[in-house]
Amino acid sequence: MTITIQDQLSNGSAEDASDGQLLNQMHQGDSVSFEALFHRHYQRLYGLVFRLVGNRAEAEDIVQEVFIRLHQKPPSDGRDEHNVSAWLYRVATNTAYNAIRSRNRLWQRNQHLVPDKRDGSAGPEKAAEQEEEAQLVRLALAELSPMHGQLLLLRQLGLSYAELAETCDVNPNSVGKTLSRAAEAFREAYLRLSAQTDAEEHNP
Amino acid sequence: MNEFDDVIAKLAVLEPTKEDQPQAADAAFATLQQRLEQPAAQPQPIPWFRRFTLMTAKQKWTQAAVGGVLGLMIAFFGLTSSGQALASDFLGLFRVQKFAPISISPEALANLENMDFEGMVPGELVWDEEATEPQQVASLDEAIALAPNAFVFAPDLGEPTDVAVGSAGSGTLTVDLAAARAILNIAGVDGNLLPDDLDGSDISVATEPGIFMHWDEGNTTVVQMPSPSVSYPGNFDPQPIGQALLQFLGMSEEEAVRLSNSIDWTSTLILPIPSEFASFQEVTIQGNPGIVITDNEGGESSLIFESGGNLIMMQGNWSADELIDLANG
Q1: How many Å apart are CA B282 and CA B265, to the nearest integer?
Q2: In the CATH scheme, what architecture does the domain A13-114 have?
Q3: A1 vs chain B: nearest CA distance in angstroms?
Q4: Residue B143 · residue B164 · CB < 8 Å
């Protein structure tokens, strides 16, 4: 007797199916496999995208967009086991990066129109400071390549080196080195942007 | 705490708070299903040949057709339009004067499509003036009045059924070397072919208004416009980038080196032709160089040629010979 993914989902054993198996089922028109992939990756993709865009509605929308693309055109490169997670995280990161870069440009053009949260109207001082710090971190991330940003954020999300290699489709032997480069690039961008912000505060 | 741990700790400020938690996965999936059921969310697959027309009709002229190393960079870098005077700090300039068709494999075509589909952008693109969808006008005379530099040619098919004018556009891509290299790496090409000094380079593209004409006879479409101009810093060496992009399109390293060294990258438009879907031949139209592309399934042909600094693309349900005859008048 053949056990389908649908059977596996209904009896709770779909966890045993690999991403690649689910994708293969999707290619054969199995919508249940698509749903299984969604449930498997939704939370973590949201966590990644939210960290980049900092807005719940926008993050949810981007994650939905990623799965719409997966549904419309599932990746296929002829291999039996396509790295679906690498595809999902790459598309999510690229889409989020496009969103934040676009927003940063808009912000830079219109920053004279944005109310200064430090004037006390934005709530408790600590929350305002935290939001300011988050904005600075996001600006620094936006200056990295999407792959570097993705690696750092997924590491912060708690992924092991082996999981990072799988999810980001990088050589397992070079994960540490690539992470170090990404961290160094982030640090440089953060320090520079931080100095710029300080200078603007002292010379508004 | 070492520097790496310090960076990871800084990123913790981005963690979602309790209020930032997403809706439950079941509810999110229900929303997703609703979106998928909307017709607009499920475009029908478009044959390659028709897509070529569609891109043109949507003014994605440069993405569809403009190659050369810099034209190809436009496709590669996702630029789709542009049109203003060159900034004084740009010393190099690309304009189309000749064509170099290149057969590409289905895999290379998929690379090009996936790049767009997966949102991969090798840098930051800023539009100064974004080209709009072509606007229909009442007559060819009105189109010429709106786009005086565009019109150089009309086939002998009588009055066109539809005439439209596409607007000018201009934009600049600031190259993100890491992102550009990542795109090449994904396609199996060594990203280090791109030189270090490419990082942060500004590449500007400008297009002038174009004229779109359509005739019911033969479902014929003609698009014409002044050649888009691509400007780039004077220290910019297009050869290694050309090599990388030719490899991205599926050429072997040896072939790409040979071709990139023999092409005049300041004036040659590379046309990637998926060999699975179409064949091509070099032709002369009104004394000017051109390329005719024929759908392998037959029934449709497309012609692109240069005339007096303008690019003209013509397409319809004609054989290659019929299309050439129409173009030569």
Answers
A1: 19
A2: Orthogonal Bundle (1.10)
A3: 30
A4: yes
| Average pLDDT across chain A, whole number | 80
- Of B102, B53, B67, give the one whose Cα is nearest residue B274: B102
Q: What is the mean pLDDT of residues A78-95?
A: 78
Ranges of residues in chain B whose predicted pLDDT is under 70: 1, 39-96, 112-120, 130-133, 235-236, 298
Calculate the alpha carbon distances from B299 to B53, B275, B317 in Å.
14, 16, 5
Quick one: pLDDT at residue B93?
55
A84 falls in which pLDDT band (50, 70, 90)? confident
Alpha-carbon distance B316 to B221, whole Å?
6
Inter-chain contacts counted by CB atoms under 8 A, chains A and B: 117
Q: What is each CA distance from B158 to A74, B213, B324, in whole angstroms?
A: 45, 11, 17
User: With contacts defined as CB-CB under 8 Å, which chain A residues touch B44?
Assistant: none
Closest CA to B104 of B256, B240, B254: B256
**Do B28 and A60 lie within an 8 Å CB cutoff?**
yes
CATH 1.10.4030 fits A119-204, yes or no: no
How far apart are alpha carbons A60 and B30 in whole angstroms? 13
Which residue of B19, B31, B32 is the best one to mutate when testing the A interface, meaning the one whose CB has the most A CBs within 10 A?
A: B32
Q: Residue A111: is its pLDDT beyond 60?
A: no
Residue from B6, B8, B13 whose CB has the most chain A CBs within 10 Å, to mutate: B13
With residue A21 as reference, give the H or E element that holds it.
helix A19-27
pTM of the model: 0.54
Residue B108 and residue B127: Cα distance in Å, rounded? 28
| B234 sits in which H/E element | none
- Contact status, residue B103 vs residue B144, Cβ threshold 8 Å: no
- Domains of chain A: which residue ranges? 13-114, 119-204
The reply to whether B13 falls in a domain is no
- Using CA coordinates, name the residue in chain A closest to B37: A68
Confidence at residue B46, expressed as pLDDT on a 0 to 100 scale: 36
What value of ipTM does the predicted structure carry?
A: 0.82
pLDDT in tens, B188-207: 788 888 888 888 888 887 88
